[in-house]
Amino acid sequence: MSSPIVHAGHQAPTGFIRRYVFSLDHKVIGIQYYFLALFSVFLGMGLSLLMRYHMVYPDAKVAWFEKLWPTGAAGGIMTPELYLSLMTMHGTIMVFFVLTTAPQSGFGNYFLPIQIGAEDMAFPVLNMLSFWTTFLALVVMVAAFFVPGGAPLAGWTAYPPLSAVGPLAGPGEGLGQTLWVFSIAIFSGASLMGAINFIATTIDLRCKGMSMMRLPLTCWSWFVTAILGLLGFAVLLAAGVLLLLDRMAGTSFFLPAGLVVNDQILNHKGGSPLLWQHLFWFFGHPEVYIAILPGMGVASQLLSTFSRKPIFGYRAMVYAILGIGFLGFFVWGHHMFMSGMNPYSAMAFSILTMSIGVPSAIKTFNWIGTLWGGRIRFETAMLFALGFVSLFVTGGISGIFLGQPALDLYFHDTYFVVGHFHMIMGVAAIFGMFAGTFYWFPKMFGRMMNETLGKIHFYLTFIGVYAIFTPMHFLGIAGNPRRYADFTNFEFMGKLMPVHTFMTWAAIGTASVQIIFIINLVWSMKKGPKAPVNPWEATTLEWTIPSPPPFDNFAGKHPVVNHGPYEYSVPGAPKDYIMQTDPA
Amino acid sequence: MLLGPIVWILTVVICYFFIGHYWWFPPPISQHGEAYDAQFTVTLWVTGVIFFLAQMALGWVIIRFRDKGGVAKYSHGNNLLEAVWTSATAVLFIGLVLAGTRIWAAVHFDEAPADALRIEVMGKQFAWSFRYAGPDGKFGRLDIKQINDANGNPFGIDANDPAGKDDLTSASLKVPAGKPILLILRSRDVIHNFFVRELRLKQDIVPGMEIPFHFQADKVGTYEVPCSELCGLGHHQMRTTMEVMAEADFEKWKRELAAQK
Amino acid sequence: MPESITTDIIGGRGAPPAATGFGGGDGDSGGRGASRRASITGLLVLLAASVMLFAAFSSAFFVRRGLSNDWVNTPLPRILWINTGVLVASSIALELARSALRAGRRAAFNRYWTGATILGALFLGGQYLAWQQLNDAGIYLATNPSSSFFFVLTCAHAVHLLGGISALGYIDVQALLLRLGPGKRTAVDVSAYFWHFLDAIWIYLMALFFFWG
Fold it and tell me: What is the domain range of residue B187?
């Protein structure tokens, strides 16, 4: 019989395994997720460099290609099927293991409980399980590279029939594609577990005085993101199950009759490839909001803190987050304008899509409104938050073209789309993660990151990403299709090669610059100057506890909140900031 | 603070390239294409102005409100401003969509004219085939078991159907200029997409569906057709052309093709 | 050492310390109250995800059904009706158990809860029989779209039920070992709610196949 007083979490764990491997501490789990995402982003970036190199030098003979891929790159020359599988894995790894992971499960796990005044997440064991399930999903995904046939080549969107008919459709479409589906299914399960924690924690574990309308915008973002994940990933799981059955059990959910693949007549009948698209994008669109909302929360947080001003229009910002989350479930059809679906529904989806532009615009105006009249400090964290705003504008604007089916008649499946989503996800969201890193590193590791290295990294990266991704819009206007291994077969594409070459070298340069970030991160963890409790003079609860925080965050105390999260430069106050926990 | 001017410079450079039309659409060859370009231009201006103003504003606040000592303005927002810019955005964005409705409707809501020339399109990994009905004006039945690429029967025209005997199959698309065309899009295996830049049109080709798609091309010329939906390892090689010919030339071509059978 | 993983997951005695946010203190009603709330929220969230899963399958069902003419209604084996009765009976047994627990009648709780667990296991066994019967009639997963959905939906339900039975079984063992203290009240309630939810899903699935086959 155990003592009724002893609770699981009140004793700090001992032993390496309990402390760092199967930890129940949300802070450790958050860092585990962060490093999983960091590994994944470098893997994904490496894949993209291989892709960009091949597009511009398709006949290049690279000796170590053959070592890694004896079939896919026989003679050291990358085959188109290898290119497509690298592309598929690049997209998949980036979207799932980076963008769905670091902003939400990484920073959110670490800071949601602290920012609401809780000692941990609602369900610490579930939290631990959700990390290791994500880890398992990554292992299964990476395993696809190593099985016979290699990784799948159907894109991260895995449209059937290409993804459903098996190895007849190409190398990697055998075991590789199957592993991919399993990995996504496992990842969906992990996300559901995480969502349960985030939602229950936000609703039930807020400390005294922390009403919903005093929550930092980071918490609102994590909360709504969790709801999106909860509802979206359940549908993805269903879709994955059906795809697996079509692949392995002879069912015909997505496969119609009359398919002749590689000279073989297949016996499926009656299924619909469009059904997959509907199910996938019903998940897929909320997914992109999952990728960006936490970054928006971080941007709001930092812009307010480093301008020494309250966020402009807190209520509007909350409604905008809720609006984006809600509307995000009704616009999936804008990925399917050209799919053959009912054209009347296209109009409906289009109007809803444009409507989502409205809360996004509200947020942008409010960010600028926050800066207006401020006293802006340009620490690296703030630079990334400012960069986020610029990139979000650029990336969001191209959505206005794509959201109109009339214009999508040309732009669908061109580089215009690739430019759009890379700007928003591949850059703005990543800048949100950089901003979060520089901002919260002192709290997480008890040391400050190096500002000089940070600023150099920021400026080079900011210019670099504009250089890489803006030209994609021009390629799209010129009609360059996406997912092409090379452009040697079309006259009009030959004329665009200088643009591709420019982008490739911009990518290689910008990727190399990221070494500065890694050096800064690793060196600062070990040797950075000790961080004070509140280096940024910020108001939210994480800045009331030591850097790094003790095991149970608030050392047994229960914070009481008396103020909103953005009380900066309050007239008559002794300092230019009032902590949320300061006396009323 | 350096960020302010950098944002300005990037903005100006980007606008310069958009205005300069350095890498741009090919000239349109149809009325739909002209309407398309008009809608694109309106959208470009609206978004361009928003883009320019937003980035300029961002750059400006960075410079103007850098910390020079002093006190920041304590304000939680401005509801009037919020209402104004929210409504303006909504009107602009939704207005753009509604403006483009006519274009979408002409392509997808309106049926092809009754006298449109019907051409069947077959996409397969990794080539295109086009079928014309021949003098009897009827297409023969298809039977996938009779598909034979080597013998020039990619469609699998049923040898037992007399209506199919005079069907003409071609690896590239030829159409008469100035006449309405109705394509019936089919795929044998995976999803493909038929795209002609100069027409400003594309359409997914989905196995299990026969998708009608109509247009009218007015300018004579040969235009490349790149498959525009990932269809496997040969996706980047799945190329054909659409040749728009004067009507007399088109008829001549058909006769020559028939003679070769 | 935490008492058990399950209590950590679903709240109860070994509740996460964060639950003591309101009012503070360990082990007092404030602490347990807050963790009970979190557990109920957690359950509701889980149910929302599960509803979405079945909604996704259902929408695929209706789309596929309308698509082509190869849909052949799956004949429902008789045993499914018996299974339905068994499942409903198990839910009733759970409610009788909970009411007995509230009245402090431990022995009655044990009887009803064990009964419910056994009925749950019987349901799963009955499902297996139903699948066998369909197979014997030549109806398999890939036979036609209706049968595909039948197997997918009933299997998805059965997987959920396995989770439910594990929870019921765990509580049962704790009860029989006289370890079901007041701190586990939330675990009892949450398990019961989850079970009733699965009941409702099952009735929905029966209706789905009965009317739209």
Answer: 117-259
- Put simply, the answer to whether A387 touches B208 (Cβ < 8 Å) is no
Confidence bin at A13 (pLDDT 50/70/90):
confident
Question: Which residues make Cβ contacts (< 8 Å) with residue A410, sequence separation at least 6?
Answer: A479, B25, B36, B40, B197, B200, B201, B202
Give the whole-number percent of chain A exceeding pLDDT 70.
98
Answer whether C21 sits within 8 Å of A7, measured CB to CB. no
Asked whether residue A557 is assigned to any structural domain, the reply reads: no
A220 and A318 in contact (C-beta within 8 Å)? Answer: yes
The structure tokens listed for A423 are: 């700007």
Q: How many angstroms separate the CA atoms of A295 and A439, rounded?
A: 13
State pTM to two decimals: 0.94
Decide if C58 touches A, using CB distance below 8 A.
no
Number of C-beta neighbours around residue B24 at 10 A = 12
- The one-letter amino acid code at A162 reads L
Tell me which H or E stretch contains C210: helix C185-212
At C93-115, the pLDDT tens digits run 999 999 999 999 999 999 999 99
Do B136 and B7 fall within a single domain? no
Query: Are B46 and A400 inside 8 Å of each other by CB?
Result: yes
* ipTM of the predicted assembly exceeds 0.90: yes
Claim to verify: residue B253 and residue B135 sit in the same structural domain: yes
**Low-confidence stretches of chain B (pLDDT beneath 50):** none
- Same domain? For B52 and B153 the reply is no
Tell me which chain A residues have a C-beta less than 8 angstroms from the C-beta of C45. Answer: 195-196, 199-200, 230
The whole-number average pLDDT for the span A363-391 is 97
Q: Which two tokens stand for residue A474?
A: 């021009």
Chain A residue numbers touching B228 (CB-CB < 8 A): 412-414, 481
Answer for the pair C114, C98: CB distance below 8 angstroms, yes or no: no
Q: How far apart are CA A270 and CA C57, in angstroms?
A: 17
Q: Do C38 and A270 touch (CB under 8 A)?
A: no
Q: Do A271 and C17 touch (CB under 8 A)?
A: no
Domain containing residue B173: CATH number? 2.60.40.420
CATH of the domain at A454: 1.20.210.10
Domain boundaries, chain C: 5-212
A10 pLDDT more than 80: no
Task: Give the CA dihedral C120, C125, C128, C133, nearest 10 degrees.
Answer: -120
Indicate if the pLDDT at residue C24 is higher than 60.
no
Q: Does B70 reside within a domain?
A: no
Would you say residue A365 lies in a domain?
yes
Quick check: is A553 in a domain? no
Contact list in B for residue A483 (CB cut-off 8 A) is 230, 235
CB B74 within 8 A of CB A310: yes
Give chain A's mean pLDDT: 95
* Residues in a beta bridge with B124: B127
Q: Which of A525, A484, A496, A553 is nearest to A111 (CA)?
A: A553
- pLDDT, average across residues A97-118: 97
DSSP state of A530: B
Q: Domain check: are B240 and B130 in the same one?
A: yes
For domain C5-212, say whether CATH 3.30.950.10 is its number: no
Residue B146: inside a domain: yes
Query: Smallest Cβ distance to B72: which of A340, A375, A493?
Result: A375
Both B236 and B155 in one domain: the answer is yes
Domain range holding A226?
Answer: 18-544
Indicate if the pLDDT at residue C7 is higher than 90. Answer: no
Q: What's the total number of domains in chain B?
A: 2
Q: Measure in Å the smallest separation between the Cα of A11 and chain C Cα atoms.
A: 9
Mean pLDDT of A241-251: 96
Mean pLDDT over the full length of chain B: 95
Contact A272 C63 (CB under 8 A): yes
pLDDT digits (tens, 9 = 90+) for C26-47: 222 234 456 899 999 999 999 9
Going by C-beta distance under 8 Å and a sequence separation of 6 or more, which residues neighbour residue A37?
A97, A98, A101, A102, A106, A433
